[in-house]
Every structure is written in C-alpha cells, then in structure tokens.
Amino acid sequence: MPATSDIGPGPVMNDPLSGVSRAVALSGLDPSESPLTAPPGVPAAPEGGEAGSTGSIWRLIGRVFVENRLAVVGVVILFVMLVFCFLGPFVYHSGQTSIILRPISAPGSCGKGLIPGPPCPLGTDVNGFDVLGRLMLGGQTSLEVGLAAAAVATILGVVYGAVAGFVGGWLDAVMMRLVDTLLSIPSLLLLIVFAVLFKPGKDVLILIIGGLAWLYPARLVRGETLTLRTREYVQAVRVMGGTGRRIVYRHIIPNAVGTIVVNATFQVADAILALAALSFLQLGIQLPQTDWGQMLSGGTGYAEDGYWWLILPAGACIVLVVVAFNFVGDALRDSLEVRLQQR
After folding, report:
1. pLDDT of 61
2. Residue 196 CA, distance from chain mean position
3. Furthest-apart CA pair in the chain: how many Å?
4. Which domain holds residue 284?
5. How far is it, in rounded angstroms, from Cα 126 to Cα 326?
6. Cα–Cα distance measured from residue 252 to residue 254, given in angstroms and rounded to the nearest whole number
7. For residue 288, is the peptide bond before it cis, meaning its omega torsion is within 30 degrees of 0?
8. Residue 111's closest CA among 131, 93, 136, 135?
9. Is pLDDT above 70 for 101?
10. What is the mean pLDDT of residues 168-197?
C-alpha cells in the first residue's frame, strides 16, 4: 500500500487576510478594531475622500478670529462706540441742533466754555455746545460717512477690478493705467479739490471719499481675478457656455470675498480719517452738524489755554475706532487665510 501522510493537505494558495488575522491575534489587540484606526486624539480622515463640511470651515474661521484677542477688543470697542453714538442721545439729551446761550449761572444749564462737571460731564465748547452730546452727534456722522464711503469704494473697486482682470488684454491695460494715474496724485489733494468744488454735506462727502478710495480695492480684486480666471471651475463654466457676466458675478467675485471683506474694514478706517482731515480744514460737515474732525479743528485754537476737553475726547474717539477697525481687519485676514488652506 502506498504510504499515507499524517499531515493534512495544506492551503492551495496563501491567504493574506489570514496573516493579518494572526498578527492581530498575536499582538493582543481587539479583532474588532481596525489596524488602520487613527491613534487617540487624532481625528480620523473622512471615508471615501469626502471633504469636510462648510459649517466646520466657518467654525474654524470663528475660532481663529476669537483666539485673536486684539480682534475681540476691537469688536468690543466698535460695539461700545455704536451704542454710545446711536443710543446715547436717547438717554442723554443735550439739544445739539441749537447753540446754548444761557449764562453759566442759570440753574441746570450749560453755558459757553463751561469746564467739565455737572450738568455737563465734558463741559461745553466756546459756542456753548455740550461736548458729550457733540461727541455722540459727531460719532454718528463719522461712522455713517465711514461705513457708507467704504461701501461705495468697495462696490466700485470690486466691479472695476473684476472686469479688468477677467477681460484682460488691451482693455485691462487701459483700465489699470487709469488707476495708476489717479493713484499717482495725492488723495488728500483730490479730496480738497472736490470738497471745494461741491458744497460739503454728508451725501456729497460720502460720494467724494468713496469715489476716490475705490482705486485700492480695484487693484486687489484685479490681482485675485487674474488668478481665479485660470481655475478649473471657471474653465468648466466657459465650456458649458456660461457668459462672462455670469462667471464674474457668480464665480470670480464670491471666491474673492476674503480679500474684499478684509479690505473693506480698512476702507472704513481710511474713510473716517479722510473725513476728519477734511473737517479739520473746515471743508467737511458744517454747523450746526459736526463730526469728530470738526471738533478737533475747533479745539486746537484753545489747546494752550488748557481746554483739554475740546481736543482729547474727539481725538480719543477717532483713534479708538480706527485702531479697532484695523484689529478686526487683521483678524479677518488671518481667519480667511485658514479657510483658504482648508480648500
């Protein structure tokens, strides 16, 4: 008889899964746990190559923004200034539309040049206006002009720069040479010329300041557009027959929103400073209306006489608001850079 072997028939082919199973068994790990499971504390990668949700990206942006303490300080300052300027007059009534001509000795009234104290916490100016009430009224004008002028400059600059960058060619060259020419002229000189030619008022100043400040966002958006127009999704829209207008308004501008928002915050600060400069030169808001720059201009002549309340409050408000907008702009730039890195 032929000899038989006590050893059973071996496997026909090597099974790689059996080797993995033996390795898991020898290592003492729970077989239910995958060897590819991420270590504790490390977030697992999304299955199937799925990208993270949009909500998580915005939460990341918010976390980065909040971690910037200067940005939080800036937001608090802006909130306090908005409440002070727009809600303060409902609590503190000072009658800023008329000059106070009553004598200082009149009970419960403020007179000309009254030093800080009851009933006027910050005293009065040489015309008899309550300085605290003027700060509120001047803050309304400064913030309104700053925000509106920044909106005008941003809208004009975004549309102009996006069209120039998307079309390209000779049209881009002509449009940007015009921008370069206007940028070569000192902006303060142009502001003074237009303020002299037109009667100064809130609406006119918004158009003058915003109509000169659009040059900077136009250059920024044009540079972003030159990069975005070569992206795959823009080329896909072209192939599908999308018009240039649709590409600009639905794809180019929305994807440049980070640069636009950051620049808009700086535009507000620049507009407030521009208004203060014009008003300091007596080319801004006229009496009985006022703004912080006009208050500074009216108080400089009495600085050597010790009338600090005519200068310091308005100057402090300008500095605080401008610095706060710069803090917020810097934090937005850092936060949106994180969003771009997550793309």
Report:
1. 77
2. 31
3. 138
4. 79-89+121-341
5. 34
6. 6
7. yes
8. 131
9. no
10. 89
Q: How many CA atoms lie within 13 A of 155 on its CB side?
A: 9
Kindly list the distances between the CA atom of residue 245 and the CA atoms of 173, 225, 249, 307, in Å, as whole numbers in the listed order: 20, 13, 6, 58
Range from 90-99, 100-109, 287-296 that averages highest in pLDDT = 287-296
Residue 270, classed as helix, strand or coil, is: helix
Residue 221 near residue 162 (C-beta atoms within 8 A): yes
| CA–CA gap between residue 257 and residue 227 (Å, rounded) | 14
Residue 7 located in a structural domain: no
CA dist., res. 338 & res. 60, Å (int): 8
- Give long-range contacts, CB 8 A cutoff, 24+ apart: 15-22: none
What are the beta bridge partners of residue 117?
Answer: 120
With tokens 């890195």, the residue in question is: 341
Express each pLDDT in 188-226 by its tens digit. Answer: 888 888 888 887 788 899 999 998 999 999 999 999 888
Residue 259, CA atoms < 13 Å, CB-side half-sphere: 21
The per-residue pLDDT for 238 is: 81
Q: Does residue 164 belong to any structural domain of this protein?
A: yes
User: Higher confidence at residue 18 or residue 211?
Assistant: 211
Number of structural domains (the chain) is: 1
Report whether pLDDT(247) > 80: yes
Backbone angles phi, psi at 28, to 5 degrees: 80, 10
Q: What are phi and psi of 115, to 5 degrees?
A: -70, 160
Is residue 144 within 8 Å of 205, Cβ to Cβ?
A: no
Q: Is residue 306 part of a domain?
A: yes
Q: Indicate whether 50 belongs to any domain.
A: no
* Rg of the chain (C-alpha set): 32
Contact assessment for residue 317 and residue 81, using Cβ atoms and an 8 Å cutoff: yes
Q: Could you tell me which residue, 217 or 28, shows the higher pLDDT?
A: 217
Q: In terms of pLDDT, which residue wins out, 249 or 11?
A: 249
Residues 66-80 as b or e (16 or more Cβ within 10 Å = b):
eebeebeebbebbee
CATH at 307: 1.10.3720.10
Residue 153 has pLDDT above 70, yes or no: yes
Name which residue leads in pLDDT, 76 or 96.
76
